Every structure is written in structure tokens, then in C-alpha cells.
């Protein structure tokens, strides 16, 4: 007879305390592990974390920059969560974000100053969503109808999108390139009518648009018949087919919706603080960071909002670390640690580990013992 040390079993229904407590514990564990690493390299982790907190939330300008960084992360996080809920592994949020920025800025430049802001801003944002959906369709259609691996195709499309943006600005005389700058190529500024008004410092109303789009996605997935069908497909495609749901059509629609949300992020970033197709401002890995946001939020579309603000704070704090002699790569390390612990936390949300009772070996034979009973 052997004794198993631990056994893993599904939790079943999970309380809200577990769903809230595990992600918080994951973040704290990531900061503790990163702090140990910083200490071993001769850096005071308390000083680093204090500097990061002060840079992100210690002043109105810091809060403004944090929310600016959080705005696209809300939408790229929603983009990843929408796809992952249906077990569609869209890793192409970065490329869809860039294509959204390309299309949004292109439409704004093409329309010019003749369109009023009340029409121009929605057109630019919607154009960004269409650009992201179009880029996602390059991977979505083969995934649905040919069974290709969407992880590989979406990942490769990220690099193609980045190369396309660099070509439009650095390698050609495209309409996206500013013809008045001859020293170092940069993007042509979009018309003022396409710019989202600022609230304070550089923060624009794009943060409220991003939150509204996240709430709409939550309502669409969680409160509508279409979203109910999507959730069924995500839980079991066989059950969905038995219920008469068009699985292929639902997967394609969700894939395109995911790409559209990443494209919305690109459109908002161009119409907001950037104001042009500027590779130096757009090539920040925001699509990849959105995956971390979605994972840490447990794919909950509302929880993505505060998690995106946390990640925005980390991004905003990066440059200030250089003032105390800490490389900005520390932020990347923290984000990676948070992702690892978030994935581990998701395992403990869905499963629990316990010590079982002593069980017989699978290969051993159990011989019943029969007691002899004397006749009365």
C-alpha cells in the first residue's frame, strides 16, 4: 500500500472571496519575489517600490500619465479576454493595435479638417476597430475553415504589422509620413478635429471611452443571447453543435471582435496623446501587456479596468527608476513575474490540493477474507 502525498481535484463553484483573493495574492507574491531578486543584486527593493508608487500616483501629472498608459491596456486586455473565453488564442493584439493605429490615422489624414470633431472622433475610433478586425481576419479565417494554429499566425502577424508601420514612416514617402520634417522621419500629425480633448495635463477623454467599451463588452458577453451562445461554445463546442449553434460562425465573430477591440486601442492612442502614427510612441508592447492584464483579471471584463491601471502605473514608473540607478527592465521583470503568478493563481482558483487517505496500490490485488461460520 502507498500513500499519495497530494491529490488535485476541481473546486466546482468558487466563492467571490477566492476569485478576489487569489489575484491579489498573486500580485503580492510577484512583488515579493522581484524584491528578493532586487535585494540580491544590491538594490533596495523598498526604495524601488516607493519610487514607483510616487511616480505613478504621487502627483497629478503622475496620475495623468498612469491613466494614459492604462487606456490602451484596458482595450487590449478586453481583446485578449474575449478571445480566451472562447478558447481562441489570439496572441496578435500587438499587431491589431498597430493596424488600428495605421487605419485610424490614415482615415483622419484623408478626411482632413473639413469634418467636425463630433463626427470625426467616432469615425477615427471606429476606423481603428475595423483595422484591427481586418488584421485579425487574416488569422481568423484560416483558423475557422482550415484548422490552422492561430497562435502561430497571430504571433507572426505582429511582426509584419510592426514592419509595415516602420516602412510607412521610415522607408517611404507615404501620406502617414510628415513631409515637413526632413531631419528624422516622423508621423504626420492628424487634424485637430480628430483629437480627443484633454482633461488635465495630457490625459484625454479616451480613458472614459475605453471604460465604456469595456463595460459594453461585459454586457455583450454576459447579458445577451449572443453572449450566452458564445459562452456555450467556449465551454463545449460539442454541446453547442448539439444545441444548433453555428460554432464556426461564433468563433469567427469572436475573433474579429477581439481584433476590433485591439484596433480601438490603436485608434484611441492616435486620437489621444500621440496625435500621429509615431512608431516610437506605439511600439511599446501594449498588445502583449494586454494578455498579462487579461490573465491577472481572470478574464473578467470589468476586473480588467483596475488591473490595467496597475499595469499602467508600472509602465509609467519605469523611466523614473533610472534616476535612482535602477534599469527600466525592472518593470518588464515585474510584469513577467505577475504573469507567472497570475497563471499559477488561476490554477488554484479552479483546483485545490489536499492530502488523500491511504489508498492501495493500483497493481496490488485485494483478496477478500471470509470468516468461517459454524452451523448452529
What brief labels describe this structure?
ABC transporter involved in vitamin B12 uptake, BtuC; two-stranded antiparallel ribbon; 4 strands
Mean pLDDT across all amino acids: 86
Provide the helix percentage.
Answer: 55-70%
How does the helix and strand content classify structurally?
Answer: mainly alpha
Architecture, according to CATH? Orthogonal Bundle
Indicate the overall shape: globular
Question: What is the radius of gyration computed over CA atoms, rounded to a whole number of angstroms?
Answer: 25 Å
CATH class: Mainly Alpha
Question: Which fold does the CATH topology refer to?
Answer: ABC transporter involved in vitamin B12 uptake, BtuC
The total of beta strands comes to 4
Biggest sheet details: 2 strands, antiparallel
Taken in chain order, the helices and strands follow as EHHHHHHEEHHHHHHHHE
Low-confidence stretches: 360-376
Fraction of residues in β-strands: under 5%
Overall tally of domains: 1
| Sheet with the most strands: spatial strand order | 1-4
Distance between the termini: 38 Å
Count of DSSP H/I helices: 14
Amino acid at each position: 500500500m502507498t500513500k499519495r502525498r497530494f491529490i488535485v481535484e476541481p473546486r466546482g463553484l468558487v466563492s467571490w472571496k477566492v476569485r478576489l483573493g487569489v489575484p491579489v495574492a498573486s500580485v503580492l507574491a510577484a512583488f515579493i519575489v522581484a524584491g528578493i531578486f532586487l535585494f540580491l543584486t544590491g538594490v533596495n527593493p523598498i526604495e524601488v517600490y516607493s519610487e514607483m508608487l510616487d511616480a505613478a500616483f504621487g502627483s497629478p501629472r503622475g496620475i495623468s500619465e498612469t491613466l494614459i498608459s492604462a487606456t490602451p491596456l484596458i482595450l487590449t486586455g478586453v481583446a485578449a479576454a474575449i478571445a480566451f473565453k472562447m478558447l481562441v488564442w489570439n496572441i496578435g493584439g500587438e499587431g491589431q493595435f498597430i493596424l488600428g493605429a495605421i487605419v485610424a490615422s490614415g482615415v483622419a489624414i484623408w478626411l482632413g479638417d473639413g469634418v467636425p470633431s463630433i463626427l470625426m472622433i467616432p469615425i477615427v475610433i471606429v476606423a481603428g476597430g475595423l483595422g484591427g478586425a481586418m488584421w485579425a481576419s487574416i488569422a481568423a479565417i484560416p483558423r475557422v475553415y482550415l484548422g490552422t494554429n492561430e497562435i502561430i499566425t497571430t504571433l507572426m502577424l505582429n511582426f509584419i504589422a510592426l514592419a509595415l508601420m516602420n516602412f510607412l514612416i521610415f522607408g517611404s514617402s507615404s501620406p502617414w509620413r510628415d513631409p515637413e520634417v526632413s531631419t528624422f522621419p516622423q508621423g504626420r500629425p492628424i487634424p485637430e478635429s480628430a483629437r480627443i480633448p484633454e482633461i488635465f495635463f495630457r490625459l484625454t477623454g479616451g480613458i472614459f471611452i475605453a471604460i465604456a467599451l469595456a463595460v459594453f463588452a461585459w454586457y455583450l458577453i454576459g447579458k445577451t443571447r449572443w453572449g450566452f451562445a458564445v459562452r456555450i461554445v467556449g465551454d463545449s463546442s460539442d454541446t453547442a453543435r448539439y444545441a444548433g449553434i453555428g460554432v464556426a460562425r461564433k468563433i469567427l465573430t469572436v475573433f474579429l471582435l477581439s481584433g476590433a477591440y485591439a484596433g480601438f486601442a490603436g485608434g484611441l492612442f492616435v486620437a489621444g496623446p500621440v496625435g500621429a502614427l509615431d512608431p516610437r510612441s506605439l511600439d511599446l508592447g501594449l498588445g502583449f501587456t494586454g494578455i498579462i492584464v487579461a490573465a491577472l483579471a481572470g478574464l473578467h471584463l470589468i476586473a480588467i479596468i483596475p488591473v490595467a491601471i496597475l499595469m499602467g502605473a508600472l509602465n509609467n514608473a519605469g523611466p523614473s527608476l533610472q534616476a535612482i540607478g535602477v534599469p527600466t527592465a525592472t518593470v518588464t521583470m515585474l510584469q513577467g513575474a505577475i504573469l507567472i503568478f497570475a497563471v499559477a493563481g488561476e490554477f488554484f482558483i479552479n483546483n485545490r490540493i489536499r492530502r488523500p487517505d491511504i489508498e492501495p496500490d493500483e497493481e496490488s490485488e485485494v483478496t477478500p477474507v471470509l470468516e468461517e461460520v459454524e452451523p448452529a
